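So, is this right?
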Amino acid sequence: MTARPLNRIRCVAGLAALALTVGCKSLVDAPLDDDEAAGPPALAALMALAGDSGDVRTARGEFAGTDTLALYSVVGREMGEALPFCWSGRLNENGSTTWWDARCAVREHADGIDVSFSGSSGELWFILVLLLPLPEVEIAGNLLVVAPEDDCSDYDRDDYRYPATLEDSLVARMGRIYGPYTGRVFNDTKETQIEHMVALKQAHLSGACAWEDERRKQFARDLDNLTLAAPEVNREKSAKDPKDWLPDKNKCWYIATVAATKRRWSLTVDRGEAEAMQAVLRTCENLEMQ
């Protein structure tokens, strides 16, 4: 998967949430000239790593106030497709660029990327944004994006509400009151709890933190991600991913279900999680529930 082009960089004036007034002039989405292409040392290394799959955008402007914050939203991409980097600098009178350190920050959200940096009144600034495509891994036939966990919004379990009647639907599906994590058959649903194989908090850290409330509720009610477990097993697993917890039985089925769920809902896996899942799959003869 390659990074989608950043189709526009827009200046957002009057950032009320930060109680700052931002004045922006002469915003230009321009190609790199020879001096700017050299850029900071880290850029050359990242561009070499990216090859033809990296996407670079630049902009120029003038600060209109003292100690102001200019906020730029880069839109036109799907969350989780790329890893953003940014640099900012001052344009000198001779046309060269002096690159600043620690003045540029990136924040991802559902609509794209916010790039922020600071400067002084009258300074001509230059900003450069690089997107590198995130790596992918195939797990049980599912192509998943590998990315660090990210708590981009506060987790609230109430955002992922689901009805208790889902337990009846699970029993009807399996034809018995069965806990696949232990292979135990129960006599009554009072002995079991609904278990999310991709835990709700784990989903939140893997991309659901950027979802709207309705999509979170839909995920919580996805029968293909649900099973039954004894309360003590449910508590033991909690919000752990396959790197930190595996069931006693049906490990292969569990890993395949987690991978399929993450693909279906466009959730990411972190590197340790992916390696743990692949290690289990190397021991599997089939992926069916036993």
